[in-house]
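Example record

The entry below shows one chain as it appears in the dataset: sequence first, then structure tokens.
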Amino acid sequence: MASAQILVADDDAAIRTVISQALMRAGYEVRATSNIATLWRWIAAGEGDLVITDVLMPDGNVFDMLPRIKNTRSDMPVVVMSAQNTFMTAIRASESGAYDYIPKPFDLSELVAIIGRALAEPKAGQRPAGLDEAQDNMPLVGRSPAMQDIYRALARMMQTDLTVTITGESGTGKELVARALHDYGRRRKGPFVAINMAAIPRDLIESELFGHEKGAFTGAQNRASGRFEQADGGTLFLDEIGDMPMEAQTRLLRVLQQGEYTAVGGRTPIATDVRIVAATNKDLRQLIARGLFREDLFYRLNVVPLRLPPLRERIEDIPDLARHFFAQVQKDGLPRKTLSQGALDVMRRYSWPGNVRELENLIRRLSALYPQEEITAELVEHELASDYTKSLDPEQSGAKGIDLGTAVERYLSEYFASFGDALPPPGLHSRILREVEYPLIAAALAATRGNQVKAADLLGVNRNTLRKKIRDLDVSVVRSSR
């Protein structure tokens, strides 16, 4: 739709100029303004095929005007931009009926691509406005590029019941994301039920999930409901799904396929209406290769994969996270604290093996143990202690790097040993190549912040080859900061 007219609204003249020039080079006609009143006059007059606008304008907030736009021009896509790059901004954009939300600063080529998709498949707004930007109650904190992709993905999934699998290291906030999907989604009025697979004895997992009838096993004195029944109409969060035993995986797969289950010891099928959100800190593909996780269940759960970045990939979020945790402990009755610039510098240099959970624990210790209002670098260094030194300089701790060949050799030795006297399943060569290719491509995409052209050049492969491998390996393309 090369002749489409794009309406651009932003109070920054430089931004208006840059966007307008990029769109005109792409073949679009552009009209630009610095205020909402003019933008609304154009829309009401029937002008424009798509709107690109900043959220905060000198004469108002675009979120307040979006319902009017949707009532007047329901087929007009609206792309909103904002420098207030928070989770709630993305959610409010989605709730208000915006086609997409783009955090500032943004990639112009990405903006042009979004416009192309929007014009090809314009979306009519169907969701009401009404979410207040309550910064103090935000479930997710951070404005880094890595988190912006998470916010946008979550915003798109809020009005669906698609099954989501959240991967990430321990302490990255997987349950927080699962709760956000529930609390701001279409099932918010239903229950949110969480179950940790790693914390339940293997012989009790099926009873915990599906319930049991009286007399089903020794000690079953009464009928008990399972988590599926408790979560009916809401969300069931399956944490540490990689620790689920194979026999329970088989029953879970049957539930996902048929939409019903039977309690342990029961015969009558029970219909289920839940949204499944799974999470793991393990590589499920490796578990599949070792015969520890069902491949068919993996594809049932991995409808929408979401990778949470470790804190070391979003270092710029540390100040916001620290302020958030200080505010929380202040509500608990502890005195107000702040971090000196030196203390923040120390935190930025630390590798955070425990991720956001480790940072939260550190903030709580600093608040409870020290009377100073301003926390200094020396105090932070003292609390991080040996972990701090180890993270800053691995050579000082005696750690010695090993080459990739040695690492693979060690892995294969342990892998073969895990089968005892037996041999691994056939097809080992392709499985090992796949396991090496996946982290290699993921690392290249992370290093280039999701730019596939740069990643292909970095890897030394054709761009189309890279795209095919991303699709075949199911690699999540998530930008991250460096």
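Notes for this example: The chain has a mean pLDDT of 83. The first helix runs from residue 13 to 25.
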